[in-house]
Amino acid sequence: MSLVGKKAPLFSAPAVINGEEIVDNFSLEQYVGKQEVIFYFYPKDFTFVCPTEILAFQEKLAEFEKRGVAVVGASCDTEETHLAWLATPKANGGIEGVTYPLVADPAKTIAHNFGVLAGEWNYNEEGELIYEGAPVAFRGSFLIDKEGVVRHETINDLPLGRNIDEMIRLVDALHHVEKHGEVCPANWEEGKEAMKATKEGVSEYLAKN
């Protein structure tokens, strides 16, 4: 089930902040009423596609922050594993230099509640509890507004990396809609014309484009 239009699931979990400090009770609630959040999941620490995404978010962090948007990552690893990876240089496959929070979800409850867990517990024919699928998170991305409501979500399969610029475009679109009361058509980017959500508005936009 999609979370779009609903409150983002609540959680309190360990996280690594500033690339070096473990906190025990990190929560997205700290942003409610203050700023939007890009909350994203990646499958696993010390892997291959994941560091490219994590570092790409870091490279664009200033672009998110100047728009008043916080970036928070999460996986089903422990906070200690996050910390070890953050201390590993990029040349050795690490993510040293990442400063935004990375949430630890080893119980997989956060991933489950956000609908991105790549597997689930089940019972086999012998009545034994087993895990079916991959015990990691898909590449889920959520744009959460200042009221804590999910306004956009995408979920990629494990091998498919994200486009971070698209996340910035979506933030710009949300801000434009909230500021101007217009809607953003296909391929809209900041600085381009939007349109009124009326029959006349659509006709006028299509006539120009």
Automatic annotation (TrEMBL):
Q: Which CDD domains match?
A: PRX_Typ2cys (cd03015)
Alphabetical GO biological process terms: cell redox homeostasis; cellular response to stress; hydrogen peroxide catabolic process; response to oxidative stress
One Pfam match: AhpC-TSA
Gene3D superfamilies linked: Glutaredoxin
Q: Where in the cell is it found?
A: Cytoplasm
**Which keywords does the record carry?**
Cytoplasm, Disulfide bond, Oxidoreductase, Peroxidase, Redox-active center
- Pull one GO CC term from this UniProt entry: cytosol
Q: Which family does it belong to?
A: Belongs to the peroxiredoxin family. AhpC/Prx1 subfamily.
Q: What does this protein do?
A: Thiol-specific peroxidase that catalyzes the reduction of hydrogen peroxide and organic hydroperoxides to water and alcohols, respectively. Plays a role in cell protection against oxidative stress by detoxifying peroxides.
User: What name appears for this protein in its UniProt entry?
Assistant: Thioredoxin peroxidase
Species of the source: Echinicola vietnamensis (strain DSM 17526 / LMG 23754 / KMM 6221)
